[in-house]
Amino acid sequence: MLTQINGLHHVTSIASGAQANNDFFTKDLGLRRVKKTVNFDAPEVYHLYYGDEVGTPGSVMTYFPFPHAARGRPGLGEVGTTVFAVPKGTLAYWQDRFQTFGTPGLERSSSFGEERLHFTGPDGDAFALVETEDGRAPWSGNGVPSDEAIRGFHSAHLRVSDGGATEELLRFMGYEEDDRDGDTVRLRIPNGNGADVIDLQTLKGANYAKQGAGSVHHLAFSVDTRETQLEVRKALSDTGYGVTPVIDRDYFWAIYFRSPGGVLFEVATNEPGFDRDEDTAHLGEALQLPNQHAHLRKVLEEKYLEPIED
C-alpha cells in the first residue's frame, strides 16, 4: 500500500466559456483565480485555476473553457459531484448567497452524517458544500468573510458500474474505508490534507457518461515531491497500470493513468507551486504561457483567447 498520497491535489473540468466560468468561481464562490494560462496540448484554450490565496494543493479547481463546447451527459465512469468544505453552521449563509446570485440547482441533503448544499455551475456542473470542522485557511479577498469561506475540497464523488476494482486501487493508493451508506463506500486518507475523502458509488444498469462542458476531465491526487511521485509511479506500473511518463506542467509535475472505473487519475506534485512565475500578491492576473507556447502570445491573445473581465 502506498503512503505518499496526501489526498486531492486539484480537480480539472471542462467549460463552455471563460467569462462565465471565471465569474462563477470568483464571484459566486468567492475563490481566487490563482493562474491564467493555457492548455498545454491546445494552447488556443485557456487553463484557469481557482483556489485559496496561494493555490494550496487540495483547494484548486481548474478548467479548460472550450468556447461553445456541448454539454456533457452525466453517467458512469466519471466524477459525479465535486464537494467543497465550509465551516459548521454556514450552509444558511451560502444558500442565501446563492439565491442572491441566482445559482441554480439548490438542494439541501444529509449524507454520512454531514449536512450539505447542492448547486450547479454554469454548464450544469454538479457541486456541493459540506459543513465540516476544517482548520485550513480560506481566501476571503473576493467578498466571502473568512468565517464562511470555502476551505478547499472536501471530497469527490465517483460513479462507476463495478466499484470493486476502483476500491481496490484506492486502497492501494492509501485510502481506507471510513463508512458505507447504501451503494456508496466512503474512503479516506488517514492524516491527509483535508481534501482526503473519496465517495465511491456503484450503480448498476446506468448509462456511461459522455464528456463535455460541465464534466470533470480528471481527478488529481497530491504527493509532496518529485521523488515521492516517482515512487508512486513505479508502484502503479509494477501493479499493471499504464502510467504516463512524468510531464512538466510548470506549477507541478504530473503522471496520468486510467482507473478501472473509467475515471482519469493524475498524481501531481506539490512543488514548485503557482508562485514560480508570479508573486503571491498578483497570482492569476496576467496571462502566463508555457515556454513552448510563448511565441504564440500575440496570436493567442488577438485571435483565440477571449478577454476576461474581473
Structural class per helix/strand content? alpha+beta
The percent range for strand residues is 35-45%
Q: What radius of gyration results from the CA coordinates?
A: 18 Å
**Structural domain tally:** 1
Largest sheet: 8 strands, mixed
Number of strands: 16
User: Per CATH, which architecture?
Assistant: Roll
Query: Reading side by side through the largest sheet, how are the strands ordered?
Result: 2-3-4-1-13-16-15-14
CATH topology: 2,3-Dihydroxybiphenyl 1,2-Dioxygenase, domain 1
**Mean pLDDT rating:** 97
Low-pLDDT residue intervals, each spanning 5 or more residues:
none
Helix content: 10-25%
Separate helix tally: 5
Specify the CATH homologous superfamily. 2,3-Dihydroxybiphenyl 1,2-Dioxygenase, domain 1
CATH class category: Alpha Beta
Described by the principal axes of the CA atoms, the overall outline is globular
Terminal Cα span: 45 Å
Order of helices and strands: EHEEEEHEEEEHEEEEHEEEH
Organism: Psychromarinibacter halotolerans
Pfam family, one: Glyoxalase
Protein name: VOC family protein
InterPro entries: Extradiol_RC_dioxygenase, Glyas_Bleomycin-R_OHBP_Dase, Glyas_Fos-R_dOase_dom, VOC_core
Helices and strands, with pairings:
Blueprint (H helix, E strand, L loop, with lengths): L6 E9 L2 H11 L3 E8 L2 E10 L8 E6 L12 E10 L3 H11 L5 E5 L2 E7 L5 E7 L19 E9 L2 H10 L3 E6 L2 E5 L8 E6 L13 E8 L2 H14 L7 E2 L3 E7 L5 E9 L24 H8 L6
Parallel strand pairs: 1-4, 5-8, 9-12, 13-16
Antiparallel strand pairs: 1-13, 2-3, 3-4, 5-9, 6-7, 7-8, 10-11, 11-12, 14-15, 15-16
